[in-house]
Amino acid sequence: MRLLKGEPAKRAVRKLAQRGADVDLKVTRTVQRIIRDVRAKGDNALRKYSEKLDSLPRGAKFEVPQPELHESLDRISPELRNALDEAAANIRKFCEWQMPAEWRKQIAPGVEVGQIVRPINSVGCYAPGGRYPLPSSVLMTVIPAQVAGVKNIAVCSPRPALETLAAAALLGVETFYRVGGAQAIAALAYGTKSIARVDKIVGPGNAYVTAAKKSVAFDCAIDMLAGPTEIVYLAEDGNPAFIASDLVAQAEHDPQTLALFITANAELADAVAVEATSQARNITIAAASLKKNGLALLASSHTEALEWANAVGAEHISVSRGDASAITSGASVFVGPWAAQSLGDYCAGPNHVLPTGNVARYRGGLSVLDCVKIMTVQEVTRAGLERIGPTAITLAEAEGLKAHAESVRIRLNAPIATGADHARA
User: What residues are annotated to the active site?
Assistant: First the structure.
């Protein structure tokens, strides 16, 4: 983990602030070929790529039978079952708190407006099945959809581990496909004989999954593009071991993880850099990540450190309670020394499916809001029309849209019925 200060640190921050959700051109070309094949050949192409890339047994069905899902829940340890139960309960409660409310209000006499909330009809949840089994990703993607009221929820995961299947069974998932990669994204986006098309795809994945989500985004809604993990830890004091442990924990995800410690305390910067290197020495992926992308950035003041943290807009950011209100860009914020970032990865309640590439400057993580539609509504009486109609006519005529103006004028010129009809109209 390198220590940068002065102009080199400022240059690093400027570069990081300009990063985006880049997808490798070679990966994109490969993904686009897979998507074309799946769109054109359906199950045949899906099977070809699943057998070649994800070791799907020849002739195996894509969908996991319900008995196999239920059996998986019986085969895990009681400790894991309890952990999944508690994590699921916290995530569900958080999603329930997130649900937007419906409302109607009178914006002017005779003019009532509001919003109505409806679930998306179908959601495809992607759970990675590569380097590590990620049952937590099943919880994080399925539960928001369930709380939102989504009727049709499908999970895709390549080579699903027992733990991943158990998490799905725990939630009552009825449709689970043992397919992954770009071919799974294509199947969810466009449909095949075996896999129904969905309205939205959510969940994290590798570079091929991310590129595939980007490629289908104009045909099927997606949540976000999520690349390699990112962490910023901002502090002027604290336990170096605590700080380093969060940096190493996130670096463990991927050799490309971006791990930053930002401070104006030179002594603490040195201590954290040394401690992080020490803690990662026996964790191959974390050690490689910290060597390549691990930085301790020494600012000239705490004000500058805060500015840097917000400019980077990281996926995860840890801060003191006093700094929490000053954070404007960070997908998931962890406050205080006891808020280990791993708690957010698993069981605190907020979602761990988070944007990277400085996307946090304009959106947060996956939530129940990704699984609903907020539809606006307006109800107008005759009196309300008489009040606001002339405004609409004036604006329509200013834009040269005669029919727009006439649609209001024809109503205003209609004869007024009885008083009772006038009140209802």
Answer: 315-316
